[in-house]
Amino acid sequence: DQLRALAEQVNAATREDWRAAPLVPGANAAGADIAVGYPADRRVTVGHWRAADAATVERALQNAVAAQPQWDATPAASRAAILEHAADLLEQRMPQFIALCTREAGKTIPDGVAEVREAVDFLRYYAGQARRLFGAPEPLPGPTGESNTLQLGGRGVFACISPWNFPLAIFAGQVAAALAAGNSVIAKPAEQTNLIGYYAVKLLHEAGVPEAVLQFVPGDGATVGAALTSDPRVAGVAFTGSTETARAINRALAARDAAIGVLIAETGGQNALIGDSSALPEQLVKDALASAFTSAGQRCSAARVLFVQDDIADKTIAMLAGAMAELKVGDPGLLSTDVGPVIDSDALCLLDEHAGRMQGEATLIARAPLDPEATAHGTFFAPSAWELRSLSQLTRENFGPALHVIRWKAGELDQVVDAINASGYGLTLGIHSRIDETIERIVARARVGNAYVNRNQIGAVVGVQPFGGQNLSGTGPKAGGPHYLPRFATEKTVTVNTTAAGGNASLLTLG
Ligand code: UN1
Q: Any idea what DSSP says for residue 78?
């Protein structure tokens, strides 16, 4: 009932004239308008945006450099209060932001709710952390006659390059951490979700972030993104997206004739779910479905491969096929929809290509039905599952509702984990087992960032399950964890001799 009432508010907040343009004080917003189509029905235009040109990016850099010292000198508690005010505003405007997520990103309404909640959580979490870490730095232990403190401050200008799959939550997480730490921010969201980025930046301005401290420069990675990451005035980049793009950003940050910029990247995954013969089949299938197909599989945390022990495999596969036949694929604005569209036609092409390859190499387990009328004009991919012989048949992350099943036999558990590690990715891992030794053995051997036991493996909660991977899956530190915010900061150790004598109390005492 609550969700139904919210859905009505979302519908009432849905508009077709959303507009985004660069938010850069002193720049002219010239250029052509680019139309944004509804992923569920490409004939519908939901809004327009205008890209930043080179002069606008240059102006944004100048503004950001000029504005940062004052923002850095603002007490951390004041910065935190602004971010907390933004969290309150976002909560009040949940229906509008869910409407934007549905119309621009094709998110279902429950996904939209989770998206806004996560954004609110990130704003409050980093605000709270900034109060503690920046407000009154804890004195370090040291000898008498000396005071030692570690003081945190902003690094300078941060570029926040956020993804379309969490256009509000990850955007808010990156921006909140960078701002809380005393940086000025230039936000360049993924092109697919510029409307959400624009309205989120406007909301942060309304909450009190100065316009030169948080600027919005929409555009593509090759021009706007590259202009930012190759510029020596940018001290660091927060990025979520592909491993390949993270590599390119890292090269750009190192190649500049300036300090090597900091990269904080969350990238892809080839996430596995392991079920052994002690797993409860209903629970395993339920969690496999949720992990693989929620958000149309467009989460880097999503399960891509289910490793099931052979003695429960037939039953599990039959139940999976049965459950997939019941999935409702269609308009994300309807509460009855389980799986919405994928983000755009490029994403659909890659998935279709993968399905074509699987046809020759794997056994189809199930494809969820697509209602031709509801899906004819959108970028829909029918949730699909195939049985594979080995993980090496997957050569890339398939970003969408595509699940793969591989059987394993007793005695092969270590090989299964080694194969998962050998993919090079290390983001999430699901384990379904009732045997403690098995669970411990898998957790110890797997090189992953987030392991989930007997539950689904998506939806990490800020501050509760710090999120992020190893190896090809990212640089760390984990988002929503205690070490993320300090990575956006410089550390200055300040040692003061509190006596009238010269010398070095540390050496005298400890040396
Ligand atoms: C991503 O999909 O880019 O745990 C990462 C989760 C989310 C994943 C975010 N926090 O499902």
A: H
| Long-range contacts, stretch 244-252, CB < 8 angstroms, 24+ apart | 245/221, 246/474, 246/475, 249/161, 249/225, 252/226
Nearest CA-CA partner of 425 in 389, 478, 469 = 469
The answer to whether ipTM exceeds 0.85 is yes
Give me the active site residues, please. Answer: 266, 300
Are 437 and 413 within 8 A, CB to CB? no
pLDDT tens string 272-284? 999 999 999 999 9
What is the 300 CA–ligand 1 centroid distance (Å)?
5
Query: Residue of the nearest CA to atom 8 in ligand 1?
Result: 301
294 CA to middle of ligand 1, Å?
11
Q: How many Å apart are CA 477 and CA 492, to the nearest integer? A: 20
Contact residues for 288 (Cβ-Cβ < 8 A; gap 6+): 273, 275, 303, 306, 320, 403, 430
418-435, pLDDT tens digit by residue? 999 999 999 999 999 999
Using CB distances shorter than 6 Å, the residues near ligand 1 are 163, 165-166, 240, 266, 299-301, 458-460, 467
Cα of 474 from ligand 1 centre, angstroms: 12
